[in-house]
Design goal:
Layout lengths: L3 E5 L2 H10 L1 H19 L5 E8 L8 E5 L4 H14 L3 H18 L1
Parallel strand pairs: 1-2
Antiparallel strand pairs: 2-3
Helix pairs in contact: 2-3, 3-4
């Protein structure tokens, strides 16, 4: 999967997006990691988002990556979020992926 392209006017708009789109960010992260797991059966570095800013040349094309060593933590954070939101079907899917990853590491 290709990283999702995001474009913002400035860094403040990115921070606003992070606050307002928490569900979408967690869901996007889970889907990317699950897709990668299904292809390779092991964690690897995944570029989730390519971020461009219209009015800020200092931050030219930022790539937001989940490194292979961060998969479990990223999924656990998503799981916490979806438990709080009572989205139990998504929780079950994330939990299943976590079990597969943790079992494979042993």
């Amino acid at each position: 999967m290709k990283a999702k392209q995001l474009k913002f006017k400035d860094l403040d708009k990115l921070m606003e997006f992070n606050e307002n789109q928490i569900r979408d960010i967690h869901l996007h992260t889970f889907k990317f990691l699950r897709c990668e797991w299904n292809k390779n059966k092991k964690p690897s570095d995944i570029d989730l988002f390519n971020v461009d800013f219209e009015d800020d040349e200092e931050y030219d094309n930022i790539v937001l990556t989940i490194y292979s060593t961060e998969w479990v933590k990223a999924l656990e954070l998503g799981l916490e979020y979806f438990v709080e939101q009572e989205e139990y079907e998504t929780c079950a899917q994330i939990r299943n992926l976590l079990i597969k990853i943790k079992t494979k590491k042993k």
